[in-house]
Amino acid sequence: MTVERNRVRKKKRLKVRFGVDYPKRIAFTGDASAVGLYIITGQPERPGSKLLIELSLPDEQQVIAFGRVRWAKKVPPNLIRVANKAGMGVQLTKFEAGEQIFKDYLATLRH
Question: Which of 58, 87, 92, 96 could covalently link to 40 via disulfide, CB atoms 3.0 to 4.6 Å apart?
C-alpha cells in the first residue's frame, strides 16, 4: 500500500459533477480525503483520465478541482448499490477554488 493510500478517508456522501472536458455527469462521493475521492458512478472514466470536478458541500459552497482517475470499476446501473466499490478512485491534483474550505470541512468529520 502506498503512502497516499494511508491518508484518513472519511465516509461522506457529497454531490459531485465531473467530466473530462467539463463537469457533465452527476454522481456522489463514497469517501473523501484531502488528496482523493471515491466517486460512485455506473460510468467511470478510464484510469489515467484527467477530470474537472465540482463538489457541492452541505453549506452550498462549491469546490472546484482537477484530478486523475487512479482506478475504475464499471458495473451495470442496477447493481451500483450492491456492488463493492462501483465507480472510480480519483487523486486530486490541483484545486481551482475552495481548497481550504474542503480541507476544513473534512477536518470536522469523524472517520
Answer: 87
